[in-house]
Q: What sequence folds into this?
């Protein structure tokens, strides 16, 4: 049923050629917040278990959530389809066929044991925005495209495909569903052999806008209603290996040890010190550690750690890494151990576009909502979309900053605020870009 | 064949009633060092693989090594038998039947991927000492018993049985051979249902003396020939749990974290600082660490570590633990994390007996060998034997302090020195106690 060309033939039936009221001047326009919450609750019930939401991409629950979302697109009078990458698209024609489309949306898949808000809030709000416009008979200049990316949580797969960056190596990878990405795409109605048809060229979109829960606790702690996202931070990952000498913990005096775990402990502290030594929102984390041989009565000979650095500015990440690398080698010299680093992943920062940020800020102001500019510490499909056009994101508060958990929660009034900011930002971009 | 009463009937045939030359005044007496090295090489060939010695207790290689050792006892004119616990005993009558026996020996089992010296040096030297006495027709006042304990490496099993401390829980435990200790004892000719017959009462032995490689690098580094062991250190083991809050490493600012791994890193450094803050030979080690959830992009919520403290003085271990516990709670208060400790094991220190130390020191001096008093950081059967009588140990250098490894090595001249010190210490104790 979820054929990618499913509704293409119905385009004529869904558009209402007679309506050309300009949409820009609808200052009192609001989404139907009750309907949006009802939709969110219905979607949240799909794949819900005692340990949280289980809408992991390509599983039965994910497919059921996608079918529900497609139905909702149709109810919003969108021209609903599935592209070759398995992304859900809901199109609404604009008044000027020469203009590129304005894209907005998010995702509906979840992590294992996830929550009801990360992804669904942005996806269903986008559909609600389109439905509100359709109900009022408001027509934008640009074509609108609501996009619900597939498998965001498994590595931004849908948006990578949309910017033409999904490689055969990605397709061969086994996803958390147990299926390869390739088989997963086929299972959700995509066409893994025809991915090129889903790819968009740079410059082919007017803008991409995404509403999302913050996932951090800044807006909640500071009781700010709307976050204007400055960009999505860059992320560097390194595997750090500390080599000492495994030895008998009973017979090796303290001053004759080359204890790799002691050096690793000093390293963890140095990472924290270096990252916090200068003002800014950069973060640095050691979250994984393994000590070998790992016995209480043997001095550790080898320790492997993860190092992660994030910041909006790639130069800051480089500088922090340089200082950490220097500190590590100083520890090694003092302790008779050696440190080596191997970079395992690098995502460069994706800054949002000033004009899109302005549209979000103006929209929130017109609604009387407080705003704060802040980076997104988490990754989003928006970072891929930034490579082909102007990009922006709207954050709403996430209570206690919890996400990827059944305890993830955003208040209905914040969700309504987010959807209305999205609505007016779309209208503002449509008028301004 | 290895029945525990195997050679009891042969006692008369092996003793030579006519010989009563007193043994004490044999200052120029020496063991046959070449024969000892030949025996060590033969034993070392049993169970030898590319990755080291595999004489793990109860395995085929262990049983072959024991059969070889029993044969060697018989060649030394010892009354060889296997007790109900599976220990090998080689008796030689003394001239005064009212005196308790003088015990000396070690073990022949190895760790997996072990070496040729840890255990065999003391066991085969003890037999060589008895053989030397037999060849010279020298008779001690005390009965002599060469003892080769079973399964030393798996938890001092044979000596625990000899002091009556082997429990049903020990017997049910699966040993590294895959067999339970109970089945292992039966497999090596013991009688697990009659262990009480192998137990000795406190005061029933004149002394226990054990020659062993140092396993640490002190004698080798300081080019001392003989170590006079002050005692076997006490060992405390704790499981330490650090609880923080798992959170998103990208969206949680540095000043809002409760990072259990950062607290654990500070703890590891504090253990090192506290243990080294006062002079002494105490050691403290964190060798095992586990961080949960253990992902590069998640702040660790829970970390579990091992803590091990060793010293000859139980009060020192208690004091160090107290300071470490205090330091941990200070870290917890500063970091918003909590520390909890659970003691998982406690071996109290076993001090050697001053008279036995004197006998070892006098023996070495008479042979012109340099000595150093030092603790044993590793555990030995001697620590159990200290509970039923006077105890002492003789260490010889272990090159680079390596043990439990195929690279474990002690020089032939050091082995000969050790055997001769054992010989004259036995004669000294026989004369003096």
A:
């Amino acid at each position: 049923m979820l054929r990618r060309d499913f509704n293409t033939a119905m385009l004529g039936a869904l558009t209402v050629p007679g309506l050309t009221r300009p949409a820009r001047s609808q200052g009192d326009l609001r989404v139907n917040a009750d309907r949006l919450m009802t939709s969110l609750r219905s979607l949240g019930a799909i794949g819900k278990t005692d340990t949280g939401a289980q809408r992991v991409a390509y599983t039965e629950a994910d497919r059921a959530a996608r079918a529900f979302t497609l139905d909702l697109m149709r109810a919003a009078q969108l021209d609903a389809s599935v592209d070759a990458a398995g992304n859900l698209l809901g199109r609404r024609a604009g008044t000027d066929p020469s203009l590129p489309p304005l894209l907005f949306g998010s995702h509906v898949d979840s992590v294992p044991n996830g929550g009801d808000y990360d992804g669904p809030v942005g996806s269903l709000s986008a559909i609600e925005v389109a439905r509100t416009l359709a109900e009022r008979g408001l027509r934008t200049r640009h074509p609108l495209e609501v996009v619900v990316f597939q498998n965001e949580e498994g590595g931004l797969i849908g948006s990578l495909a949309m910017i033409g960056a999904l490689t055969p190596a990605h397709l061969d990878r086994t996803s958390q569903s147990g299926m390869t990405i390739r088989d997963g795409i086929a299972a959700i109605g995509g066409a893994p052999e025809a991915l090129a048809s889903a790819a968009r060229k740079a410059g082919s979109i007017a803008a991409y806008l995404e509403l999302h829960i913050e996932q951090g606790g800044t807006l909640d702690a500071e009781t700010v209603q709307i976050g204007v996202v400055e960009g999505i931070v860059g992320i560097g990952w390194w595997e750090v290996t500390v080599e000492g000498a495994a030895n008998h913990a009973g017979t090796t005096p303290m001053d004759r040890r080359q204890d790799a775990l002691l050096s690793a402990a000093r390293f963890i502290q140095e990472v924290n010190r270096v990252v916090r030594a200068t003002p800014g929102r950069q973060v640095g984390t050691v979250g994984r550690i393994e000590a070998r041989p790992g016995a209480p009565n043997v001095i550790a000979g080898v320790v492997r750690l993860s190092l992660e650095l994030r910041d909006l500015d790639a130069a800051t990440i480089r500088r922090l890494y340089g200082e950490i690398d220097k500190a590590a080698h100083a520890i090694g010299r003092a302790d008779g151990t050696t440190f080596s680093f191997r970079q395992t992943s690098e995502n460069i920062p994706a800054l949002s576009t000033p004009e899109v940020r302005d549209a979000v800020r103006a929209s929130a102001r017109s609604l009387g909502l407080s705003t704060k500019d802040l980076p997104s510490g988490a990754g989003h499909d928006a970072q891929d979309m930034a490579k082909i056009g102007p990009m922006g994101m709207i954050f709403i508060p996430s209570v206690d900053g919890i996400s990827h958990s059944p305890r993830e929660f955003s208040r209905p009034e914040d969700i309504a605020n987010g959807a209305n900011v999205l609505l007016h930002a779309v209208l503002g971009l449509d008028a301004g870009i």
The longest strand of chain B covers residues 234-243. Chain B touches chain A through 59 residues (CB under 8 Å). The radius of gyration of chain B is 24 Å.
